[in-house]
Amino acid sequence: MRNISARRSDVSRHVGSVTAFAATTLGVLLSLAFALYCAAHSIDFPVYYRAATQVVHGDYEIYPAAVYGGGAIPPHGFRYAPVFAFLFAPLALLPLDVAAFLFVALKGAAIVYIGDVASRFLGVPRRVTFLVGISILLVAGYAVEEFRYGNFHFLCVALMVLAFESAEAGRVWLPATALALAIAAKLTPLLLLAHFAWRRRMAVCGATVVALSILLLVPALVVGFRENLHLLYGFVRYAIEKIDEGDNYSLRGVLLRTGMSPESASLVWLAAVATSGGVVAAALWRRPIKPAAQFFEFSIVLTAMLLVSPHTQRRYFVILYVPVLALVALLLNHRAPHERLARGALAVTLLAGTILPLVFGGRQLALTYQSLSPYFFATAFLFVVLVVVARRLNARASAIQVTVDRTDVSSRIPRARVASR
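Above: the chain's sequence. Below: its structure in token form.
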């Protein structure tokens, strides 16, 4: 009987190994095919490549002439700080298809890196593969669009994760440099800088300001101080112009779709952001102790960027990969607080970003669906759930800490009495 049981166990292990190998191979092949497709059909990366090519050939007019002279400003162009044209320059030495594929591969590595950081902070390092696979599927609609466009946004998310991880490890210049790069690319990571200031990480904040200043000024070494000011002016003007584009799924975009004037929408938006920010700060006033609570607070900051930004496009919602990692890892642990809320938030995120867009696949149906701002409302629900869970995690960690402190004090009392005798 023991031999039969042993053979059955060996067979089941062999079948499991073969199945795992087959699944891994299939996943790698599908990922490779998707990467090749994204590289061949990228929309945003050729813009980066063109700006980098101009810089390599000594042409530094990387922003549209209309930004400086008036007239119709093209909606699609290079919108990052001038330093990024120089950072992309090595890719311009390669053929466009090869450079685009390497860019996609780098973003694929960022998926794994972010998942690894999340697994360590959330206490599930041995289940990182499962955690990454499930989480990326839950935000598949946003991820596919972001990778298909070839945007820099996901690498910006990875930079913020690096800033968070290294800041929690007590480092200064690494998180400062990573966050400065993220701010120079997208501006909205300024919210993470504000969060660091709120948590009194003043050394990181000061170093970030220095690093950002260096990034903004370093192109002057090549183009000269006067030309660099010209480029910075073009960058700021082009970034501000982006705010009033139509595909806006932040709170401000939702208000504009109600028929409000831009001025009224901006006033209501600012008031709502200030009020909600105060409420969330009060709810999370206690500094997180445990790594899981720290990661949840970081996830709240990233999710808030989507909601409070003056302009948020659909593909930017790929940032939800981070809070989804947090909730999935929470469910992998036993006795997860607010388990039903967490499952509901994940389900709503999947429905709004991936399933329902497939259901409303026609152009007219898709436009109707998007006009209802489902991405905003689903993310707002996710945001509330993250705050509730983070508050519960903080309370639980504090209660454990108080119990430990009381136990420590009570254990010292008999010793003190013996010593007095």
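The first helix runs from residue 2 to 40.
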